[in-house]
Specification:
CATH class: Mainly Alpha
Mean pLDDT: 88
Order of helices and strands: HHHHHHHHHH
Number of strands: 0
Largest sheet: none
Radius of gyration: 18 Å
Strand content: under 5%
Low-confidence stretches: 89-96
Distance between the termini: 61 Å
Membrane topology: Single-pass membrane protein
Enzyme class: transferase
CATH architecture: Orthogonal Bundle
Organism: Devosia geojensis
Number of domains: 1
Helix content: 55-70%
Family: Belongs to the glycosyltransferase 51 family.
CATH topology: Penicillin binding protein transpeptidase fold
Keywords: Cell inner membrane, Cell membrane, Cell shape, Cell wall biogenesis/degradation, Glycosyltransferase, Membrane, Peptidoglycan synthesis, Transferase, Transmembrane, Transmembrane helix
Number of helices: 10
């Protein structure tokens, strides 16, 4: 029994040490996500071309923030207001939405798994706070834009997503295509920006409208402190 407990404790220590060690490394090293690793190990296609954040459209950055995490530039990795609402909805029996910030999504993609569970959510929260402490907002967004799954056949990152959907580079996205690309993020295997249905176009229209009006709320991801919208 003692040997088993030591083995479990050792395994937990390794699991804790991995993000603690790798997160500072990712200040300079461009990471690979867990979903990408799984596809590599199972022989599936992976298409990812890393792009510096300066080489990705500011319209896409604004659209991502306004769609995924409107408080990204203001919180410390987690949105306490959204989490509070999530807990209240859970105990009231109302549908929950996840309350995942962009930083929490980065934590999940780099270190955890995708199946929804309270255990995973509980791990995401301290990881997101740690990531926000170690990495700049600009770097967190750069990583997010390069590891998010953006297509149905192993396309990861904005460059592969924009190329697969529209045949263009991610720095050349006009407003309508930037917004359409963002609509794929919840489920890139079903929502295809290059061939959107009416509901997807409707959602993209809402994203575009919000990003045009409030896009400068994402200015923390720009070295200049402002976005060229």
């Amino acid at each position: 029994m003692r040997r088993l407990l030591r083995w479990i404790a050792g395994a937990l220590a390794v699991l804790v040490a991995i993000p603690l060690i790798l997160t500072p490394v990712y200040i300079l090293v461009d990471p690979v996500s867990v979903p990408m690793l799984v596809r590599y190990l199972t022989g599936q296609r992976v298409e990812r071309e890393w792009r510096d954040i300066a080489d990705i459209s500011d319209r896409l950055k604004a659209s991502v923030v306004m769609s995924e995490d409107g408080q990204f530039c203001r919180h410390w990795g987690i949105d306490l207001g959204a989490l509070r609402t999530e807990v209240e909805d859970l105990f009231a029996g109302r549908p929950t939405r996840g309350a995942s910030t962009i930083t929490m999504q980065v934590a999940r993609n780099l270190f955890l798994w995708n199946d929804r569970s309270f255990i995973r959510k509980g791990l995401e929260i301290p990881l997101a706070v740690y990531i926000d402490l170690i990495l700049s907002k600009e770097r967190i967004m750069e990583i997010y834009l390069n590891i998010a799954e953006w297509g149905p056949d192993g396309e990861f990152g904005a460059a592969a997503g924009a190329q697969a959907a529209f045949g263009i580079a991610p720095q050349n996205l006009p407003w309508d295509r930037a917004a359409l690309l963002v609509t794929a993020l919840p489920n890139p295997h079903v929502r295809l920006p290059g061939n959107p249905g009416p509901n997807q176009r409707r959602i993209a229209g809402i994203v575009e409208e919000r990003a045009r009006e409030y896009g400068q709320r994402a200015a923390c991801v720009s070295p200049s402190g402002t976005l060229a919208l």
